[in-house]
Write a structure and sequence with these properties.
Layout lengths: L13 E6 L3 E6 L3 E6 L4 E2 L2 E2 L7 H15 L8 E6 L2 E5 L2 E2 L2 E8 L2 H8 L4 E2 L2 E2 L9 E7 L2 E2 L12 H6 L5 H24 L2 E13 L2 E5 L8 E5 L3 H7 L5 E3 L1 H9 L15 H19 L11 H14 L1
Antiparallel strand pairs: 1-2, 2-3, 3-7, 4-5, 6-7, 8-14, 9-12, 9-13, 9-14, 10-11, 14-15, 14-16, 16-17
């Protein structure tokens, strides 16, 4: 199994390239972008030293499936997926915020709550909540969209509007879109025996229209619990069985790494890498209901280049 951790393509009409933590985005002309989902993996805003085979394909195919499944809620950027690891779509002017929707108290929100915090991003939280408890209704806890090398930061709805990051009417619209998308995601997850716990959405504008951008309901942007046994585990105070990237964060924390200065990423042995691939495959099959078909990884860069050139040639 080979992993794709770097790309360096030169596509016809290419005007720029952006290498993100996980995705490499190639800008084609003025209106298109070609997004390559690499096998890189990040945690605590740090790119880990080893790639995870098939992770890019898994993320790309889950995102494409959910983008198609939510077009009736909000228009989105996706035009085509010419390769298992590639999506091509409209270039949008992104809003500088990410919309985090939470249905349950867990992850970083629980860690903050446990330390005594009772307000996140301007949203007040009641006393007496327990880890993995469901909120009465989902809440939105936005973050700023960080520049390269900086961390996302929590921000309130009021501050976003006051600072002019998103015009008030447009912010109200993307709030409504985010909650409707989350409800659809929960509905689909439930059909497959899962609970969509929390997720993030990114929005932007294209030709004056608000659009959903980037990935949707993938294990890199979302957390899932298994529905079976959730209530019993919650009542007994046991950890939930989950499908998400949280297990990677937990493994890192157990080995003394939280992305802080001076900390060393623990060794990612072939066994660890293989186990992460297996968890990503498990999530793909769990959330989509489809069998995961591994693509040929013999020469990933050549395969991607051939498929993208073939699409652009049309």
């Amino acid at each position: 199994m080979k992993a794709l951790t770097k790309t360096n393509f030169a596509f016809p009409g290419q005007t720029d390239v952006y290498h993100g933590k996980v995705r490499d985005v190639y800008f084609i002309g003025e209106d298109l972008l070609c997004m390559v989902a690499t096998d890189r993996i990040s945690a605590f805003d740090v790119i880990l030293p080893e790639g995870i085979p098939y992770k890019g394909q898994i993320l790309n195919q889950i995102a494409a499936k959910f983008l198609e499944a939510t077009r009736d809620i909000v228009p989105n950027w996706l035009l085509a997926t010419p390769d298992p690891m590639v999506s091509i779509g409209y270039r949008c002017q992104g809003y500088p915020v990410e919309m985090i929707v939470r249905g349950y108290l867990c992850g970083s929100a629980w860690r903050a709550y446990k330390s005594g915090v009772r307000e996140i991003c301007g949203v007040k939280l009641p006393d007496g909540m327990r880890e993995n408890e469901q909120f009465p209704t989902p809440i939105i806890t936005p973050t700023t969209k960080a520049e390269i090398g900086t961390h996302d930061e929590d921000i309130s709805r009021e501050e976003i509007i006051a600072r002019g990051l998103v015009p008030e009417e447009e912010y109200k619209q993307i709030e409504q879109y985010a909650l409707a998308l989350f409800a659809r995601g929960q509905e689909i997850a439930s059909k497959h025996g899962l609970i969509l716990v929390d997720t993030k959405y990114e929005f932007g504008r294209h030709n004056g229209q608000v659009m959903l951008m980037d990935e949707v309901h993938t294990p890199d942007s979302s957390r899932y619990f298994y529905k079976e046994g959730y209530q019993e585990r919650f009542e007994q105070g046991l950890p939930q069985k989950q499908l998400s990237k949280e297990f990677v964060r937990e493994w890192l924390m157990e080995n003394g790494f939280q992305g802080k200065e001076g900390q060393q990423v623990p060794e990612m042995t072939p066994a660890i890498v293989g186990s992460i691939t297996d968890r990503y495959v498990e999530l793909f099959e769990g959330i989509t209901g489809d069998k995961f078909l591994k693509s040929d990884t013999a020469d990933l860069a050549s395969r991607i280049e051939h498929n993208v050139l073939n699409y652009l040639g049309k």
